[in-house]
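B., you asked whether I could sanity-check this one before it goes into the benchmark set. Here's the sequence:
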Amino acid sequence: MSKTSRIGWIGVGKMGLPMVVLAKQAGFDVTAYDRSQDRLALASAQGLALAASANAAASGKDVVFASLPDDKALRGVMFDADGIVAAMSPDAVLVETSTVSAEISAELATAAKDKGIHYLRAPVSGNASIAHTGALTCFVSGPKPAFERVRPVLGSFTRAQTYLGEAEEARYAKLAVNLMIAVSAGMMAESLALARKGGIAWQDILNVLDDSAVASPMVKYKTAPLRSRDFESTFSCRQMAKDLDLIIGAGHSVDVPLPLAAYMREVYGSLIAQGEGEVDFIAPVRQAERLSGLGEPETGNAQ
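And here's what the prediction gave me:
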């Protein structure tokens, strides 16, 4: 894709803004829009050109990216008579980067096809703490020629782009990965509580996890903040609950039983009810500690 191609970007939230900034820094001609005036102010401070509406951001563009929080937000900007699909030109490419349901994605695919638009599902994997580094990855499905056409833009804000097929494969890939992340959080929570009950000091059990057969990138990613008991959100309990709802719904639609997903959804629901909805998704660690009668550990070598 040429650097002279015109790109519209809908949604400059915690993920969307660093992604579009990287695209701009790579030399692409980007115009952004968000419903939040605060987010638009942040985008303006980064030197981004702004549109007055989603329709204006999409009109006449060669490619339109969307980075939106959920199905409701996606529906709100895509399908109206003055929405994104209506504003886009035939032969343009629509790239949706969020975690949304396969059902609304398929609905969007039909609307795009009727308009002559090439629709790519390209959910990104990673979180807001690394989005500005270009270390995100993405899974892509849709027309392969369209993928090759926009791959240079995707490459400006992701380190890897995995093409999976023509339909909703990318949606299922993202949900499958997020299921493993949610279950890993629950697994770590119970393991750490058991170790502490067995008399192992906090830093010692984290060292064990880091140097054992279970030392996956996910485990090491979370043992680092856990050392100082840092639960500031990179991806919140509320966001994980939303994704688990999508995961369970996807399982039902294709007859896959997901008992671990259902269990973790209840764990996150409990955390939200206790006022921890905006805490980091590793908060099941504290939940397991409470259920086990454990208080806050010493962050030195003593339990």
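One thing to flag: DSSP finds 14 helices and nine strands in the chain. Otherwise nothing jumped out at me.
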